[in-house]
Structures are given as C-alpha cells and as structure tokens.
C-alpha cells in the first residue's frame, strides 16, 4: 500500500494542532467546572440557613402562642388579671407543660426539641436557644437588670454549622 498524499487544495489538521485544541478545551472545561463545584457548596449553605430559619420560626411561634405570664388564665386567649412575675419556669415545669412565654428563658437544646420535649434527631447539627427578659417600653432591645414591666423581649437562636446563627427577636406586651 502506498501512503496517502494530500491532493493539492485539501486541508487537514496536524498532530500539533490537535494537541493544542485538546489542551485549550481541557483548560476551559476545568475552569467552567470550578463554578459548578462552588455552586454545590453554596447550595448546602443555603439549605442549612433555610432549615435554621424554619426551626427558629417554629420555636418563636410556639413561644408567642403561650400566655404572657403565669398569672394569666391558662386557657386561650389568656385573659385575666396579670401581674408580672419572676422570669423562668414555675415549679419544675417540663417543656410540654410550659404555659407562659418566660418559661422558655434559658432554654438550650442540642439537638433541638419539639413542643413535647422530644429530641429532633434529624437536626443533630443544630441547637436551639431562647432568652426572655423584661424590657421597658422606651428600650425594647435592652433587658432590664432588675424589676418587672409590661413588656417582655424574646430572643430565639438556632446555632448551626460551626457557629452560624439564625436569630429572631420580638417583644410581647401585657395588654
């Protein structure tokens, strides 16, 4: 057999041209793939933030569904004479028996617990914390050092991912 020769006017690629094209494509594709890898990492962080915000909202809703204080009637809508009292649980209450917002003060659970006190093991990388304190109407962000008032500040924190935090803050009034 005789080797093929190019007929005048025919064009083709040389081996060097093919190697250069493959090298350039390899560099370009690897650069594009880096963006996909970064996107996957960002997606995971977004999911953690969403879960933390959902857990925070659920705990805040549970807290504000309770009466303002122990001296309220325990039947919704929590009417009756209300006298501000000491912040914290009343007489050894457990989570499923919490009946007023300040019972949640000092709560710190890892993993989070549901309204019945059961551990939510599916969220083992998260912890839930709650703080309740009296505040003055003119300074709703500042806890009173001592004394009572007709306003309570509630802070709910969900900590996740090595120190990241989702925080919700609200104030409730004795009215």
Short description:
The chain has one helix at 15-64; strands spanning 107-109, 126-136, 139-143, 151-160, 164-173. The protein is α+β, with helices and mostly antiparallel strands and 175 residues long. It has one domain (40-173).
Question: Can you walk through the features of this model?
Answer:
This protein is of the alpha+beta class and 175 residues long. It has one domain (40-173). Helix content is 29%, strand content 22%. It is built from 1 helix and 5 strands. It has one helix spanning 15-64; strands at 107-109, 126-136, 139-143, 151-160, 164-173. Strands 1, 2, 3, 4 and 5 form a 5-stranded antiparallel beta sheet that branches. The chain starts with 14 loop residues before the first helix and ends with a strand.
User: Total domains, how many?
Assistant: 1
State the distance separating the first and last CA atoms: 103 Å
pLDDT < 50 stretches: none
Order of helices and strands: HEEEEE
| Strand proportion | 15-25%
| Large-scale geometry | rod-shaped
Give the rounded overall mean pLDDT: 84
Structural class given helices, strands, pairing? alpha+beta
Radius of gyration over all CA atoms, rounded: 31 Å
Question: What is the number of E strands?
Answer: 5
Helix content: 25-40%
């Amino acid at each position: 057999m005789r080797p093929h020769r190019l007929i005048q006017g025919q064009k083709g690629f040389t081996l060097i041209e093919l190697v250069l094209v493959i090298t350039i494509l390899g560099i370009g594709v690897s650069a594009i793939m880096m963006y996909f890898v970064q996107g996957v990492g960002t997606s995971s962080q977004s999911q953690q933030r969403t879960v933390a915000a959902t857990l925070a909202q659920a705990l805040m809703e549970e807290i504000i569904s309770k009466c303002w204080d122990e001296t309220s009637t325990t039947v919704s809508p929590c009417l009756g004479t209300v006298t501000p009292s000491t912040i914290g649980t009343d007489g050894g209450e457990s989570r499923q028996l919490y009946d007023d917002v300040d019972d949640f003060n000092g709560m710190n659970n890892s993993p989070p617990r549901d309204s019945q006190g059961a551990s939510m093991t599916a969220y083992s990388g998260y912890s839930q914390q709650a703080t309740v304190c009296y505040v003055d109407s003119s300074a709703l962000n500042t806890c009173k050092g001592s004394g009572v008032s007709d306003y309570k500040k509630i802070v709910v924190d969900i900590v996740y991912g090595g120190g990241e935090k989702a925080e919700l803050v609200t104030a409730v009034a004795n009215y």
